[in-house]
C-alpha cells in the first residue's frame, strides 16, 4: 500500500496498541462562488444586524424597580460631578463654559440607546478638549474671523460621521491594533500636558503665552511668567486643589477605618468636586457680589440658560479644509479613551462590550450633538468609574444624569457666574491627575516585555516635546513595525517524534528537537536520515516566506550531501553562483529524501509564499538529482490552502477516489495512519 511505503520512506512507526480508525470524509474543492456567498449575509443575519444596532431593546423589557434605584443614585452622582467638570473642559477647548453643559447633556441622552456598557458615561473629556483647543487656537491665528464654536461643531460632526461609518461597517477591531503601551503613553502624555497647561489659570498668570504648545514649552513659559501670577487667583486655585486631594485622602482613610460607613464615604468622596465648587462659589459671591464689574479674581461669568446655541450647524467648505488634516488625531483621541475605558469596566464587572456598537454610539452622539451646540464627546474615565462604583445597573443611568444636567442648565446658571476660573483649573488638574500611571506600572511593562517599555518611553517623550496626537502616531507605527518584524523573522522549528501515554494507548507527539526540554527524561526521536519535519511558527505568508525557506535550506544543506557535484562536463557550464564542491568529506551524510511541512500554525497562504515554496522545491531537487525529493504537508486547516498547494503542483486535491478509498478503508484496513485518517496531509511524488 502507498501509505505503508510513505511510512517506510519517512521512517515513521506505529505506536504500540494503536487502533485503526475510520477515515473522516475529505472536503470538497472550494470555489469562488462559495467564497462570495460566504461574504453575503443571509436574511437572518441581516435582521440580527439591525436588531444589534439598538441593544436597549433586549434589556429594557426586564427593567425593574431595583435597577431603577441603582440607576437613580448613580445618575444623580454623575450628574452632580459632570456639571463642574464639563465647564472646565469647555475652557480647555477654548470655548465658553456653556458648551461643556450642552456636550454633557447630549452625550448621556443618546448613549443609552446604543450602549453595550452600563458603566460608561459619554461627555466632554480632557484629552479631546485639549486637542480641540489647540486646533481652534491654530486656525484662529490665521483666520480670526472664524469663531471657535463653529470650528468645534464642525470637528464634532465630521468625526461623528467617520466613527459612525466605522461602527456600521463593523470595523471596531481596528482599535485592537493600538497596543496598551501606546494607550498608556497617550493617557500619561495628555495628563501631563493638561496639568501643565492649567497652571496658568490656577495661578491667574497674566503673561502672554499659549498653553496649547508642547508640554516642555508650557513649563518653561510658566516658570518665566511666574511673577505675573495674581495673588487672589492663586489663593482660590491652590487652596481648592489642596482641598480636593485632602478630601479624597480623608474620605478614603475614613472608609478604611470605618467599613460600616464605606458607602457613605465613597459618595462624599465622589461629590468632593461639587462640594468644593459650591464652597468657592459662595466665597466668591461674598467677595464679588458688590463688585461684579471689577471682581477680585477671574470669574466664569454669564452662563446662558438652556440651549442658547441650539440650531442647525453650519458646515462651510473653507472651514472643513482647515480642519481636515486634524481629523485623524481627533478620531484617534475619541476612540482610544472610549474603548479603553469600556473594556476596562467590562472586565471589572464581568460583561463584554461590542467595540463596533460603541463606535456607533460615539458617532451618533457627535453627529447629533452639534444641533444642540455640543463639541466632540467620548467616554470619560473618571465619571465612568464613579458611575460604576455608585451602583449603576443599566445604561438608563444616562437619562438620570441628563435630567440633573438639564436642571442645572435652567436653574443654577446665576450661581455659576461666581465660580472662580482658578477653581475650575484646580478641578481639571485633579480630574486628569489620576491618568498618570504609577512607576510600578512601567516596571511591569519592563518585566513583561522590555520593548513595550521602550515604546511607552518613546511615546511619552514625543508627547512632551511634540504633541499628544504625534505620540499616538509614533507608538502605533513603532508597534506595527515590531509586529511585522516579529512576523517576518519568526523562527521555524525542526521536529522530532516522541510518545505520551493516554490510558491504554500511546499517542505520537511532535516536538522541536533543538530546543531545551522541560522534562530531561523525554526522548525525542529524530526522523530517519534525509527526512526533515519543519513547523512554521507564525503563519506562512509573503513577509516571512523567504526567512522560513532560507532557514530550511540552510539546515538541509548542512545535514545532507548533494548528488550533482559533477554534472557539468565543462567548467564554463557551471553557473557563477553555484559553489564548487568542497574538499570536506561529506560522504557520511545522507541524501535528502523528504520534507514534511507542519501547517498547524498556517491559516492562509498567498502567491508569494507558494512561489517561494516552488522555488525551494526546484533548488532541492537539483541538489538531490536523480533522487526526487518528496514533499508532505500536515495539519492543513484551510481548504483554500489545499487548493493553492494543488495548483502549485504539490499533489492533487481533492484526493482521487481510489486513494480516498484506500485511506478510508475502515477498521483493519492496511496502512492507515493517524495523519491520513484526519485528512490533514497532502502527499506528492509518491513512488
TrEMBL record:
Segments for region (Disordered): 656-687
A GO cellular component entry from the record: membrane
Positions of the STAS domain: 529-629
Entry membrane topology: Multi-pass membrane protein
Subcellular location: Membrane
Gene3D superfamilies per record: STAS domain
InterPro entries reported for this sequence: S04_transporter_CS, SLC26A/SulP_dom, SLC26A/SulP_fam, STAS_dom, STAS_dom_sf
PROSITE patterns per UniProt: SLC26A, STAS
Predominant localisation class: membrane
Molecular function terms, GO-annotated: secondary active sulfate transmembrane transporter activity
Domain of life: Eukaryota
Transmembrane spans: 65-83, 95-114, 120-139, 151-171, 177-195, 264-283, 359-382, 394-412, 418-437, 444-465
Keywords annotated in UniProt: Membrane, Transmembrane, Transmembrane helix
Entries under NCBIfam families matching the protein: sulP
PANTHER family the UniProt entry points to: SULFATE TRANSPORTER (PTHR11814)
Protein name: STAS domain-containing protein
Amino acid at each position: 500500500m502507498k501509505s505503508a511505503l510513505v511510512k517506510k520512506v519517512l521512517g515513521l512507526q506505529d505506536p504500540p496498541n494503536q487502533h485503526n480508525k475510520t477515515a473522516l470524509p475529505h472536503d470538497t474543492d472550494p470555489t469562488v462562488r462559495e467564497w462570495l456567498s460566504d461574504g453575503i449575509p443571509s436574511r437572518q443575519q441581516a435582521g440580527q444586524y439591525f436588531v444589534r444596532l439598538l441593544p436597549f431593546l433586549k434589556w429594557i423589557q426586564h427593567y425593574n424597580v431595583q435597577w431603577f434605584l441603582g440607576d437613580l443614585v448613580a445618575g444623580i452622582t454623575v450628574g452632580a460631578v459632570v456639571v463642574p467638570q464639563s465647564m472646565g473642559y469647555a475652557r480647555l477647548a477654548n470655548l465658553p463654559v456653556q458648551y461643556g453643559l450642552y456636550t454633557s447633556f447630549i452625550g448621556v441622552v443618546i448613549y443609552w440607546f446604543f450602549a453595550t456598557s452600563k458603566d460608561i458615561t459619554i461627555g466632554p473629556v480632557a484629552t479631546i478638549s485639549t486637542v480641540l483647543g489647540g486646533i481652534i487656537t491654530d486656525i484662529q491665528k490665521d483666520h480670526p474671523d472664524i469663531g471657535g464654536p463653529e470650528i468645534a461643531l464642525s470637528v464634532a460632526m465630521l468625526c461623528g460621521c467617520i466613527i459612525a461609518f466605522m461602527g456600521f461597517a463593523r470595523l471596531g477591531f481596528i482599535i485592537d491594533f493600538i497596543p496598551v503601551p501606546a494607550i498608556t503613553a497617550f493617557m500619561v502624555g495628555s495628563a501631563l500636558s493638561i496639568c501643565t497647561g492649567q497652571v496658568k489659570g490656577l495661578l491667574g498668570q497674566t503673561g502672554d503665552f499659549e498653553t496649547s504648545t508642547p508640554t516642555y514649552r508650557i513649563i518653561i513659559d510658566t516658570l518665566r511668567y511666574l511673577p505675573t501670577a495674581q495673588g487672589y487667583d492663586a489663593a482660590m486655585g491652590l487652596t481648592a486643589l489642596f482641598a480636593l486631594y485632602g478630601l479624597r485622602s480623608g474620605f478614603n482613610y475614613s472608609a478604611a477605618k470605618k467599613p460600616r460607613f464605606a458607602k457613605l464615604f465613597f459618595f462624599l468622596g465622589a461629590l468632593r468636586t461639587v462640594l468644593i465648587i459650591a464652597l468657592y462659589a459662595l466665597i466668591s459671591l461674598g467677595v464679588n457680589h458688590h463688585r461684579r464689574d471689577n471682581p477680585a479674581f477671574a470669574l466664569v461669568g454669564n452662563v446662558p440658560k438652556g440651549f442658547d446655541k441650539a440650531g442647525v450647524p453650519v458646515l462651510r467648505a473653507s472651514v472643513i479644509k482647515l480642519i481636515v488634516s486634524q481629523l485623524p488625531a481627533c478620531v484617534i483621541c475619541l476612540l482610544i479613551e472610549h474603548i479603553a475605558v469600556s473594556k476596562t469596566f467590562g472586565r471589572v464587572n464581568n460583561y463584554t462590550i461590542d467595540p463596533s456598537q460603541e463606535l456607533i454610539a460615539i458617532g451618533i452622539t457627535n453627529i447629533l450633538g452639534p444641533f444642540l451646540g455640543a463639541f466632540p464627546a467620548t467616554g470619560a474615565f473618571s465619571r465612568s468609574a464613579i458611575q460604576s462604583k455608585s451602583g449603576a445597573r443599566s445604561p438608563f443611568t444616562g437619562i438620570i444624569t441628563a435630567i440633573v444636567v438639564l436642571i442645572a442648565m435652567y436653574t443654577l446658571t446665576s450661581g455659576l457666574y461666581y465660580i472662580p476660573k482658578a477653581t475650575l483649573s484646580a478641578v481639571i488638574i485633579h480630574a486628569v491627575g489620576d491618568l498618570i500611571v504609577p512607576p510600578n506600572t512601567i516596571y511591569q511593562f519592563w518585566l513583561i516585555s522590555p520593548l513595550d517599555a521602550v515604546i511607552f518611553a518613546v511615546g511619552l517623550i514625543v508627547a512632551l516635546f511634540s504633541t499628544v496626537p504625534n505620540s499616538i502616531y509614533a507608538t502605533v507605527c513603532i508597534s506595527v513595525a515590531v509586529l511585522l518584524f516579529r512576523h517576518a523573522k519568526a523562527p521555524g522549528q525542526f521536529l522530532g517524534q516522541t510518545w505520551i501515554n493516554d490510558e491504554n494507548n500511546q499517542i505520537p507527539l511532535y516536538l522541536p528537537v533543538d530546543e531545551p526540554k522541560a522534562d530531561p527524561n523525554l526522548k525525542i526521536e529524530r526522523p530517519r536520515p534525509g527526512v526533515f519535519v519543519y513547523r512554521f511558527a507564525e503563519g506562512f505568508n509573503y513577509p516571512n516566506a523567504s526567512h522560513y525557506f532560507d532557514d530550511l535550506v540552510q539546515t538541509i544543506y548542512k545535514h545532507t550531501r548533494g548528488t550533482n557535484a559533477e554534472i557539468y562536463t565543462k567548467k564554463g557550464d557551471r553557473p557563477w553562483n553555484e559553489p564548487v564542491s568542497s574538499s570536506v568529506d561529506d560522504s557520511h551524510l545522507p541524501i535528502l529524501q523528504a520534507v514534511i511541512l507542519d501547517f498547524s500554525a498556517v491559516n492562509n497562504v498567498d502567491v508569494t509564499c507558494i512561489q517561494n515554496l516552488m522555488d525551494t522545491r526546484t533548488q532541492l531537487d537539483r541538489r538531490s538529482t536523480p533522487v526526487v525529493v518528496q514533499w508532505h504537508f500536515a495539519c492543513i486547516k484551510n481548504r483554500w490552502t489545499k487548493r493553492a498547494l494543488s495548483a502549485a503542483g504539490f499533489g492533487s486535491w481533492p484526493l482521487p477516489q481510489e486513494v480516498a478509498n484506500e485511506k478510508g478503508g475502515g477498521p483493519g484496513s492496511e496502512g492507515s495512519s493517524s495523519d491520513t485518517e484526519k485528512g490533514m496531509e497532502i502527499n506528492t511524488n509518491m513512488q
